[in-house]
Amino acid sequence: MRHSPIPTAAASPIAMPAAYSRILAALQRTPGLSRPEIAQAAHVAASTLSGGGYLRRMKELKLIHVSGWRQSASGAFSIPLHSTGRAKDCPRPEVTRKTREAPGMKQLLEVIERYGPVDYRQAAQLCGLAINTVKNSGYLAALVAQRKIHIAGWRRSRSGPPCPLYDIGAGKPAEQPPRLTSAERTRAHRKQRKAIQQQSGSLAAQLERLHSC
Known about the structure:
Elements: E1 3-6, E2 14-17, H1 18-29, H2 35-42, H3 46-51, H4 54-60, E3 64-71, E4 77-84, H5 103-115, H6 120-127, H7 131-136, H8 139-145, E5 149-155, E6 163-168, H9 182-212
Helix pairs in contact: 1-2, 5-6, 5-8
């Protein structure tokens, strides 16, 4: 492997892999590159950058530093960006609900703007995301914290707690109703069943009249 002298704080240069020079040149042309971007710009295999420890070693030599962070698809700041120089590494930003961004959040926002108010199940189905993803990812809570959507109402369920309905904009959140007691759920179920039976009887009567004509 051909090596090139890399200037250091010592009196004499240290011989280093030629890839170091290409990496430094790429970062001087375009600061703030991720590892895959460095691999492409410096013509170095991505596996070499990680497995070979090139970037780690160059950081130890104070040739490069982490100058920033980029968010991944999940919304976390997990992609370090590198630049030349001896500066201290930029600390990784903490992801909060107010700073979180993710493609799934954008999809949910578009669906809620068009079809809201909707619950998380409806929103997931409308934008093609898995229901458990929408339920557990915190996307909707982040959009509420960013005041892009609000809880416009609540839908009662037969057994669990009321389910929030989301609508677009920073509206006043609807107050969550208390959970129904066991007796209240039983009465509501009986009322719903009676209404269905009455509707079925009405339809049957209409069909009977039609057949008798």
